[in-house]
Amino acid sequence: MKLARSLGSIGGLTLASRILALVRDSLQAAFVGANFASDAFLVAFRLPNMFRAFFAEGAFASAFIPMFNRKVGENDGELAPALAFAEQALAVLFVFLTGMTLVMLAAAWPLTWGLAGGFTRQNPTSEQFAFAVELSRITIPYLMLISLASLLGGILNSLDKFWVNAAAPILLNLAMVSALLFFHGTPEETARAQAIAVPIGGLLQLAWLWIACRAAGVSLRPRRPRLDPEIRRLLKLILPAAAGAGAVQINLIVSTAMAGWLLEEGSISYIYYADRLNQLPLGLIGIGLGTILLPTISKLLGAGREAEAMETQNRGIELALFLTLPATVAFVVAAEPILRGLFQHGQFTAEDTIRSAWALSAFSIGLPSYVLVKVLTPGFFAREDTRTPMRFATISVGVNLALNLALIPLIKHVGPPLATAIASSVNVWMLYRALGKRGHFAADAQLKRRIPRLAIAAILMGGALFAGERLLDPYLTGTIWMRFAALSVLVGAGGAIYVVACFITRAYRLSDLKALIRRKAQAAPKE
User: Would you say the pTM of this structure is higher than 0.70?
Assistant: First the structure.
């Protein structure tokens, strides 16, 4: 159960970060609401979020970590050659990112226009659109900061110091919450303060990881950038890795742009608030598992332990579904009271809650797929195959675009989230099939036995949530504190019912729990 313990460590810190993110979003809903100022900031924030997913959680980690670990393995655990490779990667990355940041600053107008679909249906004034471009220029430097931080985080993950990297996003959320609390004003002034907080948060993250590396004995010296064969190999892997690991983000970008093209004011915000809740289990489970599985599987493969690598991935899928299926059912059944309890106050109205709830239900249909992408792609990246996930991601983006065009005229702002969910499911199916055909993955008997039982347990929990929502309705529609208390009771009861249902369906047995306790006792340090 080392996988579960590592996920628990990362998950606790990620939970703290996501709770801060919910506080941030709740404050933003109160101070800004769902209007053009909100849409403008969210489009500007999409840029750094996109590159965080591509570089910090995607391309750079996916390409760098296996190569770094291979260097360590080739030199009998000696870190010096691997750190020399990291220094050269840092030198080249710094030059590349500096140039890319300058280009993006110069191209902020077309980038903002493209990501928002020109805000076509909103018909912004020239001053409003200039404001959206201004916010994008403020947030763009975060790209460079978070990409450099991803290299340091990759080194720490390879040294099994997962918690340090997992704690870094807390600093971004602290910066943004501070900006909302101390510098809010009109919706436009508040949106500008939020945008300024983004690069400040990135600088704090970079400083935190640099200090952590120094504490771990890792000191990267400046070098003259040089494209040696190893760096050429790294760069060759990064681009397809970005597309493969960032398929969900690419689909969200397509959906955001389509919403800007075809939907009315506030639609981007409805989709954003729904996605923020959808990202909570994805961050806790999917990103955490992906962070752990990539270095773990690459080390096992480097040691020739193929069977152990496959067993690790089986347990990763099992753990992902155990944690994700109840979240999926909860978001489908209880989306409206969840959003009402968290966001409905200040500028965020009851109508905004209803519209965002429909988007959340649509997003959550694909939640298991979003998480499984993070679990399956390390099976390719650990073998330094970044092209296959890129090819599948490209197909899923095409599916997403076609579904957006088909669904938006029928179900308006619910179309983009539903299209994203279906496209992600297509991506998972292709990844799973490819790994199976190559003999790199096969579902074992334990996984096959547990999946249907976990699904039944989640459905039983959903029925209990449906009934509980009706019983608590007077409290779920009361004051904000009453709503929050009732929501806490509803979610807590749902979680307890799910655990009991897992034992009733025999998805998990008491013997599993006893074995886990014994392993923890054996792993505990002796006095």
Answer: no
